[in-house]
Amino acid sequence: MVVPICFVALLVPVVVLASGGEGGFNGVVSSIENRYHVHATRVPFLSLISAISRKATNGGVSNLNVAEFDDFSAPIDGEELNRMVAEKLGAGWERVIRETSRNGAEQTLIFMRPEGERMGLFVLDADGKELDVVEVSVDPDHLNENVAHYERHHHSDGDAGNEPD
Fold first, then answer.
1. Could you tell me where the DSSP H helices lie in the chain?
2. Measuring CA to CA, which of 71, 78, 111, 163 is 20 to 30 A from 140?
3. What residue segments make up the domains of the chain, in order of their start?
4. What three-state secondary structure class fits 103?
5. Phi-psi domain of 7 (left: phi exceeds 0; alpha: psi -120 through 50; beta: other)
6. CA–CA separation, 15 and 36 (whole Å)
7. pLDDT of residue 7
8. 63-94: burial string, b at 16+ Cβ within 10 Å, e else
9. 146, exposed or middle or buried, with CB in 10 Å at 0-12, 13-18, 19+?
10. Could you tell me whether strands 61-69 and 94-100 are parallel, antiparallel, or unpaired per DSSP bridges?
């Protein structure tokens, strides 16, 4: 009885890996690598950078993942790319932006998903010969406060230039 259970326990990870069961950020990156025969460059020490960004933003930004594809020259089918990203990201993610240039060389996909009090953002941007993939978790309240701060700062700078000497 123990042998069949051990066999099944060892077989399940092999079947999942063989079927391309990897999802999320890594699944999207792997699918792009396989489909377009390119290799992603991962940012070194990203986990350290992510921890620093979380601290620097008082928890506003965390769980940062970045992959860059340089010299990306393959033609992109926007429908296929959108479908592949949505499938690999999985349930819970909703596409909020899809922008495609007329010739299809430039593609932008932005997906979001709720993460409790936080919001997950996934951005794929293909521009000419570069394709970037970014995933990050943000605190929307903290983000709104920062955006409002910069809007106030920007407006006060603009008003200062209109004052007479």
1. 2-18, 24-36, 46-56, 78-89, 140-160
2. 78
3. 22-160
4. coil
5. alpha
6. 24
7. 37
8. bbbbbebeebeeebebeebbebbeebbeeebe
9. middle
10. unpaired
